[in-house]
Amino acid sequence: MDFARSLLDWLPYLTAAVFVFGLARRIGRWSRAKAPAAPLFPLPDTRRRAVVRLAAEICLLRGRAAGTVPSRLAAWLFHASLVLLLVGHIRTVTDFPGLWAALALTPATVDRLAAVAGGAAGLLALGSALALAVRRAVVPGLRDITGLEDVFVLALLVAVIGSGLAMRLGPAVDLAPVRAYLTDLARLRPRPMPEVPGFALHFLLAQALVAAIPFGKLLHLAGVFPAKAGVTRDPARDRDGAGPLWTAPPAASAPRRP
């Protein structure tokens, strides 16, 4: 029993180690991968336009152009709601009383706004995740390529979002013990988790999700950058560093007369 409690106390550090090791291993594989030059057309002609194009593909999910409008909308809402939830979770670590005072917001008002915004983002994330899961189950082409990893990832995401949403929509949660616990973890002072309703389940599920990120498809956001660099790599730039960022496709030669 004491060993199990000690393991739970140190589990966040083990999760962080697994995440860092897995991420470093994946980045190392990306850096060693040799991709042949595969310039695409049309290509941006300046570095600024290249960055803008990459940002548009990431923020607007333009790479999913082959999907239907409802599926692209569900994917965009899911990713946007996850970003909102991550931003909202900053208040579980620290608060910003100076900012609220500058905005003339009382702590009670901030808590009400956080409850509404967090609940809405959680419902949006849960609904869009379920929509993506249903889509994988009913669309024949997607159902055929869906493996156990996809099912596990979707189930884990739904469990993490659902457990957090239950905390948000359930009885009021006192964040002070949670902040104190996370602060002690950051200071390398492990201790038992606070007895806050629903926190232990949500935190353990979140750790499982974090540990799984480097080893599966959940790392696709970070993989966008080396993938785009690989298919647009300029051999001249790789050789002497002086070539353009984007390589234009070669002009088609005129057909020869017989």
From TrEMBL:
Residues 233-258 are annotated as: Disordered. GO terms for molecular function: electron transfer activity; heme binding; nitrate reductase activity. It comes from the Bacteria. Keywords: Cell membrane, Electron transport, Membrane, Oxidoreductase, Transmembrane, Transmembrane helix, Transport. SUPFAM superfamilies: Respiratory nitrate reductase 1 gamma chain. It is a multi-pass membrane protein. Residues 72-222 form the NarG-like domain. One of its GO terms (cellular component) is plasma membrane. Residues 248-258 have a biased composition (Low complexity). It is found in: Cell membrane. InterPro entries: Heme-iron_electron_transfer, NarG-like_domain, NarG-like_sf. GO terms for biological process: anaerobic electron transport chain. This is Nitrate reductase gamma subunit. It comes from Desulfovibrio sp. U5L. The lineage of its organism: Bacteria, Pseudomonadati, Thermodesulfobacteriota, Desulfovibrionia, Desulfovibrionales.
